[in-house]
Amino acid sequence: MAVFRGPENREVDPLCGQGRPEPDDPDETGAATTAVPQALASPLMTTREVCDLFRRTPRTVRNWCRAKRLHPVRVGSAVFFRREEVEALARTRSG
User: Fold this and answer.
1) CA 26 to chain centroid
2) Separation CA 58–CA 9 (nearest Å)
3) How many domains are there within the chain?
4) How confident is the model at residue 93 (pLDDT cuts 50, 70, 90)?
5) Rounded distance, CA 57 to CA 19, Å?
6) Domain that holds residue 71
7) 78 CB-contact burial (10 Å; exposed 0-12 / middle 13-18 / buried 19+)
8) Which of 6, 20, 53, 63 is deepest in the core (most CB within 10 A)?
9) 74: number of CA atoms within 13 Å, CB side?
């Protein structure tokens, strides 16, 4: 992917035009921003990624949701799963 630079010499996302701050840019208090928001600390997985990980069909993943083994996160009409929850299920299934 091409890297675009904005007026402050920051990377600019070509899809939305928003500048992405550098990791060591100070925030308004002057302190370096090192905290990661909770939503970014636990990334989300798509249904297809969960299916590929377990080598199961989407129907099986939906059944796991009904049985409360997985808890879907809905964003509009899209369905995602928390990576840490999926990894915990993988650990319990493997041993």
Assistant:
1) 24
2) 44
3) 1
4) confident
5) 38
6) 38-94
7) exposed
8) 53
9) 3
Task: Establish if 52 belongs to a structural domain.
Answer: yes
Give the whole-angstrom CA distance, residue 10 versus residue 21: 7
Overall pTM > 0.70: no
Q: What is d(CA 42, CA 24) in angstroms, rounded to the nearest whole number?
A: 21
Token look-up 């890297």 returns: 3
In-domain check, residue 49 = yes
Give 10-48 pLDDT, tens digit per residue.
Answer: 555 555 544 555 555 555 555 554 554 554 455 999 999
Looking at this protein, which amino acid is placed at residue 45? M
Place of tokens 């928390």: 82
48 is written with which tokens?
């297809």
β-pairing, 78-82 vs 44-46, is: antiparallel
pLDDT 10s digits, 60-74 = 999 999 999 999 999
